[in-house]
Each structure stands twice: as C-alpha cells, then as structure tokens.
Amino acid sequence: MRPSALFACLWASATALPSSLPAGRDVSIVQLSNQPPSDLPTTWQWTSTGPLVGPKNDGRGIAGIKDPTIILINGTHHVFASTAQSAGYNLVYFTFADWADAPNATFYYLDQAPLGTGYRAAPQVFWFAPHKLWYLVYQNGNAAYSTNPDINNPKGWTAPKVFYPDGMPKIIEQNIGEGYWVDMWVICDSASCHLFSSDDNGQLYRSETSLEQFPNGMSQPVIAMQDNRNDLFEAACVYSLPDGKYLLLVEAIGTDGHRWFRSWTADSIRGPWQGLANTEQNPWARSNNVQFDGDVWTKSISHGEIIRDGTVDEKLLIDPCNIRFMYQGMDPSAGGEYNALPWRLGFIAHNNPAC
Ligand SMILES: *[C@@H]1O[C@H](CO)[C@@H](O)[C@H](O)[C@H]1NC(C)=O
Ligand SMILES: *[C@@H]1O[C@H](CO)[C@@H](O)[C@H](O)[C@H]1NC(C)=O
User: Fold this and answer.
1) CA distance 349 to 314
2) Are 278 and 43 in contact (CB under 8 A)?
3) Which of 70, 73, 79 to mutate for ligand 1's pocket (most ligand atoms within 8 Å of CB)?
4) Which residues line ligand 2 (CB under 6 A)?
5) If you take atom 4 of ligand 2, which residue's CA is the nearest one?
6) Which Enzyme Commission numbers does its entry carry (predicted)?
7) Which end of the chain is less congested by CB atoms within 10 angstroms, N or C?
8) Considering only CA atoms, which residue is closest to atom 7 of ligand 2?
9) Side-chain-side CA neighbours of residue 41 (13 Å)
10) CA 104 to ligand 2: nearest atom
11) Distance (Å, rounded) from C-alpha 119 to C-alpha 79?
12) Nearest to 268 by CA among 233, 224, 236
C-alpha cells in the first residue's frame, strides 16, 4: 500500500514492463514437474465474491477500505484494514461470521485505541504464542507494532513501537529511489522471526531476530528478492505450509495497469524462492484466472491476505487444500487522487486445489 497523494492515472499508464523472472531463479523445475510442492497446484483458478466491505456513511469521509489482514477463530472472521482518504491513513477492525454478514459488520476505528491517530496502514495480525499476546504489525513511516492480550477488545491496542529504532535501514535508503517503504510482514519459524517489507521499487527486504528476542533485535535487512519495479511491487505475504515449506505472494502492477499477485515457494523463510505461478499468463491471482459471482466489479486483485483458520500463531500456517484470499478491488473506471480511490474488500476462493 503506497501512502502518497499521486494520481491513479499514473498507475494506469505505468510503463508496460515485460513480466520477467528474477535473475538466478530456475522456475523450469516447477513448470516441468508434475509434482508441485506442498499440495499446491502450478495453475490457479478462483471464484470471487462481489465487493462486500466499503466505507460506512458515518461522517468520517473515508474513501477506501484497503490492505486487509484476516484470521478465522471460533467461527468468527477478525479483519484489520487500512482506512484511506485524502487526509491520510489509519486502521479499522471488524468481525463477522459468514461472508454474507461482512457488509453489515460494525467498524471499530483504532485511532480510538492507544494505537492512536496519524499515519498507520497495511496491518498484519498474529498471535505471538511465546508472549501470549496478539501483535498488529503495520507501517507508520517505520515498521511498527502494537500488542493486545484480547483480540476481541479493539481498545486494547498499545501505542506504536518500531522495529527499526534508527529509522529506515541504509540498504532501503540506497535502493528505494522514488518508491515508498511499505507493507511490513512478520513470520517466525521455531528459532527466528523474520520481517519482510517492500520499497515500491523492485526490492523485497528481509530482516531477522531470534524468537527469544522478538520484537527486538531486528537485523539490518537483506534483499530477499529483486525484479523490475512493477513486477515486484508490494504487499508481500509469507506463509508456512504443513510440509514445512513456505509460500510467498507479492503484488505486481500488470501490463494492463491493474494489480495482480505472483507466487513462489521455498524450503526456508530465508529462501531461495522458486517460481510457482508468477507470470501474467499463469498468475497466482489476476483478472484472467478469477471468475465473478455476478458483476466483474474489479480488474485489480490487490493487497490482501489468505484466511488463517485455526492456527493463528506466529508461524502463519495455512491449509493448501482450502485457500480463500480477502483482497482489495476497485471499479476499473474509478480515478482521481491515489489516497481517495474507492477500494472495497471481497474474497476469492480457490477452485482447483491439488488436494
Ligand atoms: C475461542 O474459543 C475458546 C474456547 O471457548 C476460547 O478459550 C478462546 O478465547 C476463543 N478465542 C477467541 C479469540 O475469542
Ligand atoms: C444489513 O443491514 C441492513 C440495514 O439494517 C439490512 O436491511 C440488511 O438486510 C442487512 N444485510 C445483511 C446481509 O444482514
């Protein structure tokens, strides 16, 4: 999620770069094999809901609801998302049981919590089992987090603390160009915790600290992956799979100007990442592999998250047999100021699981 006040038409007319693969990554192994890793298919098909969640008519003047993070516990979906308007970004929390109830979910704005007012965006929620605390990771100009012992209590989120007390790490300063530092994401294995972020300029970064030290001690980042700016833009998610492998998703800007997702797998959070479905012809999720229940309300399959169901701890385990992704989409004819675009939230459900 990009925080600036530029114009949407700049994105629509973004240079059409070839959809090339990261240097040094051999996807032919995956493409030629009939044995995809971790029960994941090498081609993906989805069915989408309509737009289910948008701004309320509640006087706040919010233009878009964006960047959802979602978990399903005890039959309740818990969602945290960005609220976007010309004046800037903050966060909202809501819950619902069935997807059909999502349009009527009550909004709890997190500027009412100690988490506070001002720029906060692109949240990620997880239960950090060693601390018996919920963590909400988000961007506030740095990589920030708040904690809460009870996810059901939106007033319980603490004031922001940052992962990089010295400010933007040098390697990001050196590579960010005209981009923005966005979309922080934490995932841990049994020994260490890793913090991913993007620079809207073709770099995906990764830092790490030990499980014992988390949330302190984040290392200087390394470049986890690098590609053309549009092909490796932002909104990275990393999940663990039941066989111990990892799935990486990164949002790209398509040659048609619309957003879509690429995917990779690896044996370790440190990589190396092998392409799974990561081209416009064979995307993870893009307008050309998503069918709609009803109107085709969006051509962008943009910033979102796979529903974590059951296990919601720092290992971010997902079930490859039942993938449902909450995403942001938008009326393709909408335009105007970037922060005031009318993003809405919907779901895509995976149609052709390999298991
Ligand atoms: C889920 O249900 C269990 C058992 O009733 C309860 O202990 C737990 O607190 C619930 N979790 C949440 C997040 O509400
Ligand atoms: C949402 O609320 C409106 C107004 O209260 C009601 O008319 C509508 O049926 C509700 N929709 C759902 C899906 O519950």
Assistant:
1) 24
2) no
3) 73
4) 100-101, 103-104
5) 104
6) 3.2.1.55
7) C
8) 104
9) 17
10) 1
11) 19
12) 224
Separation CA 238–CA 227 (nearest Å): 18
Q: What is the DSSP letter of 175?
A: H
User: Which helix (H) or strand (E) segment is 207 a member of?
Assistant: strand 203-210
Which residues lie with the beta carbon below 6 Å from any ligand 1 atom?
A: 73-74, 151-152
Could you read off the pLDDT tens digit of each residue along the chain, which spans 355 residues? 665 433 333 333 333 333 333 333 333 333 444 445 678 999 999 999 999 999 999 999 999 999 999 999 999 999 999 999 999 999 999 999 999 999 999 999 999 999 999 999 999 999 999 999 999 999 999 999 999 999 999 999 999 999 999 999 999 999 999 999 999 999 999 999 999 999 999 999 999 999 999 999 999 999 999 999 999 999 999 999 999 999 999 999 999 999 999 999 999 999 999 999 999 999 999 999 999 989 999 999 999 999 999 889 999 999 999 999 999 999 999 999 999 999 999 999 999 999 9
Ligand 2 atom nearest residue 103's Cα:
13
Among 70, 71, 72, 74, residue to substitute to test ligand 1 (most atoms within 8 Å of Cβ): 74
Q: Which of 52, 57, 104, 107 to mutate to test the pocket of ligand 2 (most atoms within 8 A of CB)?
A: 104
Place of tokens 């449902």: 324
Q: Cα(257)–Cα(250) distance, rounded to whole angstroms?
A: 16
